[in-house]
Amino acid sequence: MDLNPDQLDRLAAIAETCHAEPGEVLFHEGDRKGRLYIVIEGQVEITYQIPSRGQLAIFTAEPLDIIGWSSMTPIVRQLVGSAVAKTNATLLSFDGGTLRQLCDEDHDLGYVIMRRLANVIASRLLVTRLTLTDLLVHEKEEAARPQS
Question: What per-residue confidence (pLDDT) applies to 130?
Fold first, then answer.
């Protein structure tokens, strides 16, 4: 709604539609080159590698959720999690470098995109914090139980 028809046309010109089967990995934690995805249909699970715990599911992306946002950060472009399709999924995909260049060329477009990404990042940080806090509370409770 915040973009004009010309801006939408330029975004559409760099967008690709892709499909993922259940279990298919879209990206790995630590990858340095990446794509930004918008989930159109299906579910994609985001996991983090937690020392002594292995892969921990942090978030399940559903239609209209954005994943791979780290590919858009100005300096640190290392992906902070892994993404695996939970179900058959259809996604809109953007090469991070090409999308960053488009944002640099059209600052109004870039502002709208980065404002939306800031909301995504803030919500994911909250979800991650709550998930990790819950994990730590359960670990403490398990450690406090008497061993039989």
Answer: 87
